[in-house]
Specification:
It is a single chain. The chain has 16 helices and 13 strands. By secondary structure, the chain is an alpha/beta fold. The chain has two domains: 121 residues, Response regulator (Rossmann fold); 240 residues, P-loop containing nucleotide triphosphate hydrolases (Rossmann fold, 3-Layer(aba) Sandwich). The strands form two sheets. An eight-stranded mixed sheet has the order 8-9-7-10-6-11-12-13, sandwiched between helices. Strands 2-1-3-4-5 form a five-stranded parallel sheet. α12 links the parallel β11 and β12. α6 crosses α16. It is elongated. InterPro entries: CheY-like_superfamily, P-loop_NTPase, Sig_transdc_resp-reg_receiver. One of its GO terms (biological process) is phosphorelay signal transduction system. Keywords: Phosphoprotein. This is Response regulator.
């Protein structure tokens, strides 16, 4: 049994425990970082981002151990906590529930059970904390891929106080355009797993991912045959599940055309940005998509419209803000400045717009928009 990719484990050995009871099952794991500390080291070693999971090895559960559990939960309330000990009585087990312990394992330790408990705890925590952001093209040529690529770059570089783990997943398999925009065309053949999508796991994801110099991970593949493959639906959803579990924020580039899995994706994302243009046919398609998303998620879901390729006029826009407010009602809309020279050069050179020009109006307006949406469940900036 393997640990999930990039698992950081903090092991706390309480008084009266043997240091190798738990560690012996973990030290040989190549994709595991094990940090062993004593209770005295807790104030300096434990924080919310110190580990993916905390394991406490207890010899008993009395006042001293009770204080230890309280201190761990006080310093890191949301990190998954696994407790290892000999058989505990009913009162002691109730205490574990009080401290929101993810799992309890009875000694002597079974190595496979320990790995299963760690994987399940990390997976559950990531599923509840990781965020997924859909960037949906309302019409062909709206520039949603450019928007998605740029949002991933902005999120990876300067949006959060803490360095965030960012991914961009291109769901337009007909073109894999994000990889072409970044000059990172992948030669991965997803056809190798089409017949057995259950093979997709964190190890597989680590093989197919690419890392951009800006710091985000890219998943973009030109595989148009996936649209007609018998197992294409399951493959895409399993890829999505595996990718989003690996990264704190995942940006999805969704095409304008229909797919079997589009509703499933829109039903599960945390934020939804609909990218459109300022002309009536595009706006009508956008209104249809707003209705569709709200039908899937309810009226309170924060769907937003991003009007791309916006240019300033000396007097007024062809379709003014007042008319747009009438059309979209309570659906928020924003504009992204149009700089065709910048966007064209970035595409030709396989670069992000802010790599061409740090102070450009396109990136500035897109960054401003990103600060208005709920990228995090809690405010991070």
């Amino acid at each position: 049994m393997k640990l999930s990719n990039k698992t950081n484990i903090l092991l706390i050995n309480a008084e009266g425990t043997h240091q190798d009871d738990v560690a012996a099952h973990l030290t040989s794991k190549a994709n595991c970082t094990l940090n062993r500390i004593t209770p005295d080291q807790l104030p300096d070693q434990l924080s919310e981002d110190a580990a993916d999971v905390v394991i406490i090895d207890l010899s008993k559960l009395e006042n001293e151990e009770d204080r230890l559990l309280s201190e761990v939960r006080g310093q890191a309330p949301s990190i998954p906590l696994i407790v290892v000990s000999h058989e505990l009585g009913s009162e002691a087990m109730r205490k574990l529930f009080k401290y929101n312990v993810e799992d309890w394992l009875n000694k002597p330790i079974n190595g496979e059970e320990l790995i299963n408990a760690i994987n399940a705890s990390v997976r559950s925590n990531k599923a509840s904390h990781n965020r997924v952001h859909a960037v949906v093209s309302c019409v062909g040529g709206a520039g949603a891929s450019t928007i998605a690529v740029s949002m991933a770059g902005i999120a990876a570089s300067n949006l959060f106080r803490k360095k965030a783990d960012i991914a961009l997943f291109d769901l337009d398999f007909s073109t894999g355009n994000c990889s072409y925009l970044l000059n990172m065309v992948s030669d991965v053949n997803l056809g190798n797993v089409v017949s057995s999508p259950r093979r997709i796991d964190s190890e597989f994801i680590s093989v197919i991912q690419q890392r951009h110099d800006a710091g985000f991970f890219l998943y973009s593949f030109k595989r148009p045959e996936l649209s007609t493959e018998m197992n294409g639906y399951e493959l895409v959803l399993r890829l999505l599940d595996a990718v989003t579990l690996e990264h704190r924020h995942t940006f999805l580039d969704l095409p304008y055309y229909e797919t079997d899995w589009k509703d499933e994706v829109l039903s599960a994302v945390n934020t939804c940005t609909l990218v459109t243009e300022l002309n009536l046919p595009a706006l009508k398609h956008t209104l249809d998509l707003v209705t569709r998303v709200k039908g899937l998620r309810g009226e309170s879901f924060p769907v937003r419209v991003l009007i791309n390729k916006s240019t300033r006029s000396l007097f007024s826009q062809r379709i003014g803000k007042r008319k747009l407010k009438e059309l979209f009602d309570d659906t928020p809309f924003s504009f992204v400045s149009f700089d065709p020279g910048l966007i064209g050069e970035a595409a030709d050179r396989g670069m992000l717009p802010d790599e061409i020009s740090k102070r450009n109006s396109f990136t500035k307006s897109l960054t401003k928009y990103m600060k208005t949406i709920e990228l995090n469940a809690e405010a991070e900036r």
